[in-house]
């Protein structure tokens, strides 16, 4: 997510050795506050990563 906007999604059921690949929406110039979000399941709690700031030069 970038400031609450979803950039890409992945289906963890398709994970290979615990990893998935995504092709996020290209980011425009400026500062972006990025987080990863896992919505969870009935048996596993969801969570959100710490925020990281990325500055894209334009």
The amount of beta strand, in percent, is 15-25%
Number of strands: 4
Spatial strand order of the main sheet:
1-4
Helix fraction bin: under 10%
Shape, please? globular
Rg, alpha carbons: 13 Å
Structural overview:
- By secondary structure, the protein is mostly beta strands.
- It has one domain (12-56).
- It is 0% helix and 24% strand.
- It is built from no helices and four strands.
- The strands form two sheets. It has a two-stranded antiparallel sheet with strand order 1-4. It has a two-stranded antiparallel sheet with strand order 2-3.
- It is globular, with a radius of gyration of 13 Å.
- The mean pLDDT is 88.
């Amino acid at each position: 997510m970038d400031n609450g906007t979803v950039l890409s999604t992945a289906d963890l059921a398709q994970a290979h050795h615990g990893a998935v690949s995504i092709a996020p929406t290209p980011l425009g110039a400026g500062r972006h506050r990025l987080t990863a979000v896992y919505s969870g399941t009935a048996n596993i709690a969801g969570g959100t990563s710490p925020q990281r700031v990325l500055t894209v030069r334009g």
